[in-house]
Amino acid sequence: MREANRSVRPTRTVLGGRVAASDRPVVTMTIIGICLAAFLASYLLPGLRAAFWLRPSLAGDEPWRLITSAFLHAGWLHLLANMYALWIVGPFLEQMLGRWRYIALYLVSALGGSVAVLLLTAPENYQIPTVGASGAVFGLFAAVAVVLRRTGRDARQILVVIAINVVITFTVAGISWQAHLGGLVVGGALGALFAYLPKERRSVGAVLGVAAMLALLGVLTAVALA
Which active-site residues does the annotation give? Predict the structure, then answer.
């Protein structure tokens, strides 16, 4: 039986994602679990949030904040809104893209949001901290719109959701529009890369594309901190 199973080619989605025996969105559930654990831990350890949130004035000496801030949230409403949005779009992208490309999409979109905060925040606001998975979630929003169009599905609903969230971003005080914008742009770019790469170049092209995006974000970070 084991030999027979090895000889059967794994089923894949139209974009190359491996269809697992279980349809559980393991990566999405893990991200939600990490965010929940970090939120609860921030109550038990009062200094935890301050040690890992993104404050532009500290990013040069403590670069891990560019990623760790995406797993922290300012309150229950903030956490629930982001986790609900993640649960709505995450499992679909996880299945369509496969786990490693989905993880890359999430983390690099989060990084893109943080880099945008460094680039677009006025110097007098460098002490204001930023937390939340919103940059990553906006990256998923953009990517799912691209994937829906690429696979011939109706993308109007998600485009309406993006438009509503963009309006909220620029009209509600206290929201980091910089992180949302950065995540949206990076997620859209990676989503297009993953969706439109030719089948025979899908794996290598995805790796090179992610590496190129990370290099670009590294350069932009250096520019912002110069």
Answer: 134, 180
Put simply, whether the predicted model's pTM sits higher than 0.85 gets the answer yes
pLDDT tens per residue, range 40-99: 999 899 888 889 999 988 888 999 999 999 999 988 989 998 999 999 999 999 999 999
- Length of the chain as a residue count: 226
CA distances in angstroms from 14 to 69, 148, 165, 170, 202, listed in the order given: 33, 12, 29, 36, 11
Cβ neighbours of residue 97 under 8 Å, at least 6 residues apart?
Answer: 13, 15, 16, 17, 105, 147, 194
Give Cα 131 to chain centroid, integer Å: 13
Q: Which residues partner with 130 through β-bridges? A: 54
10 by Cβ neighbours in 10 Å (0-12 / 13-18 / 19+) ranks as exposed
Q: Enumerate the H helices of 45-176 as residue ranges.
A: 48-52, 65-68, 76-97, 99-120, 134-150, 156-171
